[in-house]
Specification:
Blueprint: E1 11-15, E2 24-28, E3 31-37, E4 43-47, E5 61-62, E6 68-69, E7 75-77, E8 83-86, E9 102-105, E10 108-111, E11 136-144, H1 148-156, H2 160-164, H3 172-176, E12 180-184, E13 187-197, H4 201-207, E14 213-222, E15 226-235, E16 244-254, E17 260-268, H5 275-304, H6 319-336
Antiparallel strand pairs: 1-10, 2-3, 3-4, 5-6, 6-7, 7-8, 9-10, 11-17, 12-13, 13-14, 14-15, 15-16, 16-17
Helix pairs in contact: 1-6
This protein binds fe (ii) ion.
Amino acid sequence: MLTQHVRNGWYLGAWSDEIGRTLTQRWITDLPVCFYRLPDGTVAAIEDRCPHRKYPLSQGHLDDEGILQCDYHGYRFDGQGVCVGVAEQADRPKAALRRFPLVERDGAIWIWPGAPELADESLLPDTSWLTDPDWTHVHGVVPLKARHLLLLENLLDLTHETFLHPTSIGNAAVAATPIDVTVDGDRVGFSRRMVGIEAPPFYEKSCGLTSPVDRWQDGDFYPPGIFVLNIRVAATGTEEPDGFHMKVLYGMTPGRGNETHDFYALGRDYLIHDEELTKFQHEQQLAVMQEDVDALEAQEVMYATDPGGNAESSIRSDLAALRGRRAVAKMLAREQQGDSAPRTRASA
Ligand SMILES: [Fe+2]
């Protein structure tokens, strides 16, 4: 299983509310990144190594004019990342910071760690529901000590809900219902239609539904690291657009080595002012994610100690995960061959 990271792609780098005037370090695809806001409010992301002697700039200082000073030997950089001098010294070295392409949209900061000329905003998924006044959501990020492909496969094969999350979102109907898989260039989608099933506890409480219910899952993987799940649940026989609608966004962002930033946002378009419901859903989301984190970290140990790769067994329900794995491998191969143009544009 691949452990190198695709860099020519968008990753969720941070939530907007995480980044202010404080210098914030986050490793992304094995690159140290320092995030901060300039005086005009725009976000900057630079490689967190001073070009002088590689001291982390995130341990430096940002002044009110947006000048960033390294706190080891005093190199100073303007908002464009150009060295404007060295504190207390007359030298003005020719040095500049590596700045990463960024898009801040709907409360999320997307970063492109690879070749800047390839960064294409049209590859980002629609996230307008994160700021749509008819929706509400919770969001955050959870640390994961496992490679990002394990998280990707976790999300593309939701049959694991049956076994790993039986007290919240899973029951036998998930694993028993086959998926349809679609591949569009690098993108992989799946859908699962569960009809007349028992309501899992989370949906019973979240929607006030009693069994039987219909439950629909539509997942879209935007490689290398973005996944969006559309969920609808309703009393059985309801037309799909009339069901309770939830969305989950996952940013699967490789960190350092085999560590991953597991970003999440869970939203809904009903009872949006019900704070109790929001609190319940957020607690459940974090509990479900912890079950996943525990499983993926246990899996990581097993993959890491089996580098020769004992052959894996796969079944029909692995199809989306295997397609996702293949999409990432193809992107990496193209990147290594110097042909890095992504093959898919996001639909609206
Ligand atoms: Fe899970």
